[in-house]
């Protein structure tokens, strides 16, 4: 029986991209998908076969100041998050006012979806692009555990955010306090876009959680890129879409690998211009953004911020990682990469030490045990059911014919 699914996600690549394979499979089976997200992601949503529903959400920004996650530095981020949620909920209600929706598939970090499902009185299927949370393991608890000792959990900024989140739900006529809006797990069915082998406390997750492995979908087939040379190892450098304004780091990469036997594809984002880097060596290709899956098909090492989407795509293609995490979630991913011997991690001083940076990359590239572990993880990932298993779980949960 054809059903109508409303997807809701913040417009962040690491949150939207993994969900698009589910969209493609749902559409392939004859279901209808409407996808509410920010305007930047509309082309990708449309390419996957969904009906875009543009809402006033924007890509999350980095903390203010030096990047430290203090309540004061987080305040602008939280204010923007509240503003986006406040403006998005009426847009969702307006767009779907005359539509029948069978279920909401909401990104686990986008509470507007959870509130909207509650308002409609339909199931909320949680889409989890990072480590899942349950009664034993919580990403929020991990953040607080890893925060600096002087991090004040009762800071007025945090209390104000909590209270205003609760008020948003009340304004929508929904009985959801702030704890419920951000609780883990988010739904009776939680689709997790990582392999169980990468999950912290994996044995504690029950049948409410379907671990699907990384979902690349048709995007991996559509993205195209070729290295300039096939006779040199390829280093891919990318710090993601949030923490990418590090001019000194990019200059260090150039110093480390200029005129070497390596070829380097370096993504610098939109906060640094290529002209600021000085002369670009012949063995470098520098862009604001690369088609990541296409580059990873050819890469030998990925120097990454360790965002989950990047980490999963790298492992899917059997590419060892050298990580440079910039926030708690990325630090956790980097920790898991080390524990499973899937790569190495740079310490802060190595980001601007050209000789040490090159040495660390070459160590990872030459480590046979890392190569073996990454190959085994890629094989494990290939055995997961992916989008088909995810839609099977959705249809079984909803009792689809």
Automatic annotation (TrEMBL):
<protein>
    <submittedName>
        <fullName>Glycosyltransferase, MGT family</fullName>
    </submittedName>
</protein>
<feature type="domain" description="Erythromycin biosynthesis protein CIII-like C-terminal">
    <location>
        <begin position="275"/>
        <end position="379"/>
    </location>
</feature>
<dbReference type="InterPro" id="IPR006326">
    <property type="entry name" value="UDPGT_MGT-like"/>
</dbReference>
<dbReference type="GO" id="GO:0017000">
    <property type="term" value="P:antibiotic biosynthetic process"/>
</dbReference>
<keyword id="KW-0808">Transferase</keyword>
<dbReference type="GO" id="GO:0008194">
    <property type="term" value="F:UDP-glycosyltransferase activity"/>
</dbReference>
<dbReference type="InterPro" id="IPR002213">
    <property type="entry name" value="UDP_glucos_trans"/>
</dbReference>
<comment type="similarity">
    <text>Belongs to the UDP-glycosyltransferase family.</text>
</comment>
<dbReference type="InterPro" id="IPR010610">
    <property type="entry name" value="EryCIII-like_C"/>
</dbReference>
<dbReference type="InterPro" id="IPR050426">
    <property type="entry name" value="Glycosyltransferase_28"/>
</dbReference>
<dbReference type="Pfam" id="PF06722">
    <property type="entry name" value="EryCIII-like_C"/>
</dbReference>
<dbReference type="GO" id="GO:0016758">
    <property type="term" value="F:hexosyltransferase activity"/>
</dbReference>
């Amino acid at each position: 029986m054809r059903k109508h699914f409303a997807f809701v996600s913040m417009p962040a690549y690491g949150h939207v991209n993994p969900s698009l394979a589910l969209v493609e499979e749902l559409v392939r089976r004859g279901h209808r998908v409407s996808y509410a997200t920010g305007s930047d992601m509309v082309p990708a949503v449309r390419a996957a076969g969904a009906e875009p529903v543009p809402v006033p959400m924007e890509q999350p920004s980095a903390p203010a100041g030096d990047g430290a996650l203090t309540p004061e530095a987080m305040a602008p981020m939280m204010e923007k998050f509240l503003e986006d949620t406040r403006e998005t909920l009426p847009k969702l209600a307006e767009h779907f006012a005359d539509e029948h929706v069978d279920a909401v598939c909401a990104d686990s970090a986008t509470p507007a979806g959870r509130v909207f499902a509650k308002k409609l009185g339909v199931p909320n299927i949680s889409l989890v692009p990072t480590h899942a949370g349950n009664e034993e393991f919580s990403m929020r608890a991990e953040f607080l555990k890893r925060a600096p000792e002087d991090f004040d959990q009762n800071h007025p900024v945090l209390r104000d955010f909590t209270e205003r989140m609760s008020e948003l739900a009340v304004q929508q006529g929904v009985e959801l306090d702030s704890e419920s809006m951000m609780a883990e797990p988010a739904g009776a069915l939680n689709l997790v876009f990582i392999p169980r082998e990468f999950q912290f406390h994996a044995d504690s997750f029950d049948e409410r959680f379907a671990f699907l492995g990384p979902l690349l979908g048709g995007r991996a087939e559509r993205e195209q890129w070729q290295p300039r040379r096939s006779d040199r190892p390829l280093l891919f450098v990318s710090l993601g879409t949030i923490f990418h304004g590090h001019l000194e780091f990019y200059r260090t990469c150039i110093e480390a690998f200029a005129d070497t036997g390596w070829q380097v594809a370096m993504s610098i984002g939109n906060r640094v211009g290529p002209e600021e880097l000085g002369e670009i060596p012949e063995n470098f290709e520098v862009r604001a953004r690369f088609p990541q899956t296409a580059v990873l098909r050819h890469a030998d090492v990925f120097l990454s911020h360790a965002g989950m989407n990047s980490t999963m795509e790298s492992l899917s293609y059997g590419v060892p990682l050298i990580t440079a995490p910039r926030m708690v979630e990325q630090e956790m991913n980097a920790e898991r990469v080390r524990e499973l011997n899937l790569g190495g991690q740079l310490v802060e001083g190595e980001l601007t030490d050209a000789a040490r940076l090159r040495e660390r990359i070459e160590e990872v590239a030459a480590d046979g045990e890392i190569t073996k572990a990454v190959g085994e993880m890629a094989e494990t990932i290939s055995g997961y059911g992916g989008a088909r298993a995810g839609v099977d779980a959705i249809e079984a949960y909803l009792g689809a014919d």
